[in-house]
Amino acid sequence: MEQFENRSLLILGLLVLCSSFLGINSGPLWNCLEAANGGVIRELSNGGGFFTLQILEEPAFQLAPLYYWLCAGFYYLVGDGPFSVRFWSPVASILTVLLFYLGVTNLFNELAGFLAALVLTSSLQFMLFSKAAVVDNLLLLCLLWTVLSYIYRNYLFMYVGWAVATLVGGSLGFILPGTVIFFHALLVDKERRWREMHKLPGLLLVVLLLLPWYGGLYYFHGGEALLQAWDKYYFDGLVAYPYATAGWWYYLLALALGCMPWLGLTLLSLKHAFYDSRIDDLRKLEPFFIWLLVGLGLLSWHGVKSPVAVLLLLPPVAVLVGWNLARLKERQRQSTTYTAWMYLSGLTLGLGAWGSLQLGAHLGGELVFIGQITALLLVLIGVAIVYTLWQYKDVLLATWLHALAGLATMFIVFVFALPLVADTQNVAKLSDWYRHHCAFEPELYVERDLRQGFYFYAGRTAHPLPQGPELQQLLQNGQLKYFLVDRDSLPLLPKDCKVLQQVGHSYLLEQR
Fold this sequence. Notes:
By secondary structure, the protein is mainly alpha-helical. Helices cover 67% and strands 5% of the residues. The protein is built from 22 helices and seven strands. Strand 3, helix 21 (451-458) and strand 4 (463-464) form a beta-alpha-beta unit. Helix 9 (155-187) packs antiparallel against helix 10 and helix 20 packs across helix 21. The chain starts with 5 loop residues before the first helix and ends with a strand.
């Protein structure tokens, strides 16, 4: 067993604590997924049924309960607000990083464990959703718990973690870790693994732990609810993503963006794993390769493409990069030029700078300047990385510069950028204005992606905005009605609709 370093735990703990909680109140709950989860949590904390999780006052049987139970308990104690809804995401992220460090250290060595955890902590997507009200952070913790328990042959903890993952992520929480374990046990060291796992008693333990929830679901709502709970994943019905029909390449692209600024090192680490690794190291990496491939396959196979779900694929990438960096550190004094690292990292940070400029120009206003500052910072860090590797061949300094690029970018985004775009990404102010200034009786029709946010902040449901002939028929009935739409749907409404209020890119209109 490798020796853990208290200093490493302290550094990682402080980094993930700051990156997870910093800016957690930078804006109200964003439209769609955050607001949808917030609505479920508030209904549950206000006395909703223990076995009936609801979205827009309608049962949502695809939602697994554990995340919402935890959030509702904290929401009940602390009160209303973005912090109380988002609290469990940073807590789960902190525990994930610490568990990840301990697990990878025990598998390889202390340096590899520390660097792998540093990669995960400073990855763009991990930091972004560590401050969001989403299920995936807690599901990632349970998935890591289950897979690491399997790797270390602690099968009791593995089965318990598998059951907890199912209570957090539903069918995805059951299928993903189960498939990873099945394929690794089938393909690697098959005979010994199958004997050790004691399959039937372990599966009975999982069933026993899941029985209270799914038994209660069947008792109160019948077999149709149970079928829906297993037929759909947890994000079905919460958000209608516009790219739901994207091909298998979508998750590769999302993963590439999510592991910034480590994309170049990820590609280099893949090459080193297959061409330059020792047999012993490759065997230790095998479960993480299977995790990555199985995750890509399952998420690509499912119809709805959730950008948040790519978070579940980051640990295998972080293990691969951390292992490779520790390997390069061991060979630092040899005649290594790091040419590929310099080119790939320079290109990665250059693409990040270009993306910052494009995004700032697209959003306009003060964000143009913020995008320019972010781009300049990434370029300077990229130059510093190239110079460090070329002149000093210092692996650790170059690694910390990569982490600085990710952490500094997230600091700029959450401290300076997101407060400026908060009104364009949620309907909190507009919903509050409607609640205080508009009559309750006339019907309100809300753009589909804004309904969740409106319900959370206005406290009432609304009709979804119809499309095509149904919308034209609605506009011609002559009754007083309100519309809440974004700028993309605004041209669909006639000119006789009066704009009562505009906040950001959202509009509240009245038709008499």
